[in-house]
Design brief:
Beta Polymerase, domain 2, globular
């Protein structure tokens, strides 16, 4: 998979998307690094996210890119005006390029609330979905990105959870613990261990409230 992707930088991607008419934010491992202000590891690709209701407007503004739908490990051409059934993501590359430049995922939402696309019991006000970094980049909130990484975590996801958990503020860690308890309870022991390592004498976050 890594060999399919060009090593696009956040600065390059932000330049390409300068005139996109809807809000978007960096997602994935790059979002965590941009939020923290340092590069924690090598990234095999780069992705952004937007609200699902804004996806068509975003894609319509990217005429210089070939766009395909990635769904169920299959690629198919994006058809303008035809929204695929979730879950899916979009892969994009500039016309004539062999490697894919970046990926777009989209966030489920209703009214003024974001809904976790893997378990819509988890929701949050839309104004807490994205966060601006000191450098001015918009990223998906780190606790939301780490929630995505808690489902069947790969080695790099586990590394990200270990690296960034201590950097979350108490409210973000509490929200993430509660969300994982509902959506991915199998990952809860890992978070419990991370939290206990912060409070070896007790006082870890409770998941009972």
């Amino acid at each position: 998979m890594a060999g399919r992707w060009r090593q696009t930088t956040p600065d390059e991607l932000a330049c390409w998307l300068e005139h996109v008419p809807v809000p978007w934010a960096f997602a994935g491992g790059w979002a965590l690094d941009l939020w923290a202000g340092h590069t924690s590891r090598t990234h095999s690709d780069i992705e952004i996210t937007c609200l699902r209701g804004d996806l068509k407007a975003l894609v319509d503004s990217l005429a210089g890119f070939e766009i395909v739908v990635a769904r169920n490990k299959q690629l198919s051409h994006w058809r303008a005006g035809a929204m695929p059934e979730p879950p899916f993501s979009l892969w994009l590359r500039r016309h004539g390029e062999l490697l894919w430049d970046f990926e777009i995922v989209s966030e489920a939402h209703a009214d003024d609330a974001w809904h976790y696309r893997r378990d819509e019991r988890i929701s949050r006000p839309l104004d807490l979905l994205f966060r601006q970094t000191p450098s001015g980049r918009m990223v998906i909130a780190p606790e939301i990105q780490l929630l995505y990484k808690a489902k069947a975590p790969r080695e790099r996801d586990i590394a990200d959870l270990h690296h960034f958990w201590p950097q979350l503020d108490p409210a973000a860690r509490h929200w993430l613990m509660q969300a994982v308890a509902v959506a991915h309870p199998e990952a809860l022991p890992m978070l419990d261990e991370l939290e206990r390592s912060r409070y070896p004498a007790g006082g870890a976050i409770s998941t009972s409230s």
